[in-house]
Give the backbone structure.
Amino acid sequence: MVSVSSIPINQVILLLEGAKRSGLTTELLLQECGIDVGLLNDAEGRVDKKSFIHLMLAVMRHTEDEFMGLGFGRVSKPGTFSMMAHAVINCATLEKAIRRGIKFYELFDFAIYSRLIPSDDEAIIRFESRGELLFRAHILEAVVFLTLRFLSWLVGQQIVPKRINLDFECLDDGEFSSQFPCQVHYQQARSEIVLDSRFMTMPLVQNQLSLSKFLRASLEELMDGDIENASLNAQIRGIISKEFGNNFPDFLVVCDKLAMTPQTLRRRLKDENTSYQEIKDSIRKDASIYYLSKPELTIDEIALLMGFSEASSFHRAFKKWTGKTPSAYRQELLS
C-alpha cells in the first residue's frame, strides 16, 4: 500500500459533478476549500489530500448526501454512516459486525449494496449496484476502499485481503488501487473483497467511547488515518469495555480469551508500560467522562455505573484521574 499526499484533479472534477447535479456552484465550493479554480483546466493538476477531504465534507454538507450527489437520485442522509457504526460497534466479532452493517443498509434503497458470502476458508464481501449509476466504477472503488478501512479500524489492525476483484477497468492508471493493501484485479466478473475466514472471528477492539472520537473526523480517519496493529492494551480494552462499571471480567478470564498464561500477560503488559488495573482505571475514566456529558444522569448515578458504592470514592478517583472534581469537569463539558 502506497501513501499519497495529493489527489489528481479528475477526482476533484468527479466530486464537482455530484455537486452540480445538486444545483451547487462549483466555484464557490472550491473557494470554500481553498482550491484554485484554475486547476480544473490543468489535466496534470493535483490538490493536497486535506483540501480534497475538505471538499468532500463540503459537498456532503451542501448536498445533504453522504453519496455527494453521485447516487443518481438515491440519497444517503447525513448521519447514516454514524448510525450504522453505532449499530455494529458492540458486536463481538468482525463477522457479526459485517452482517449487522449489511442488514442496516438493507433498510435503505441505496445505489450500492453488499452481501457476505462465507465458506470454510474464505469470506467474500460482494458489492453490487442498483439501476443506472453515473460514475459507477469510481463510486464502487471508493466504497470498497472505505469499507476495508472501516473494518480494519474496528479490529485495530490492517486487514489484508487475499485479493480484491473489481468488475470494471482500472481507473487513473492504477493510482487509487495503490492505496489498497493487496493486489487489485480489474475486469472481473464481480466486485468483491475476498478475506481469509480467520478474520471473521477477530474481536472488535473499538467501543462506544473510541467510536465517539472516531466519528468526529471519520472521513479523515478512513481516508488518511493510521491503522496500526492493535496493541495488547487495545485488545484488552476491546474485551472488557463493552460494559462499564463493576462488570469487568476477572483477569484470568481475560488471559483465557487471549490464550495467554497470567504470567505471560503480566509480562507483556509490563512491556507496554501498563497493567490490567491501569487499563481498567483508564476505561473507567473514559466512561466517566462520557457519562458526565449526559446531563440526564446525576453524578451519584454515574458513580454507581462505574462500580463505586459511594459517591465520595468516585469523586476521589475522578480527581486523581483528571485533576478535577466530576462537577467541575461536567460544567466544562456542558458549557
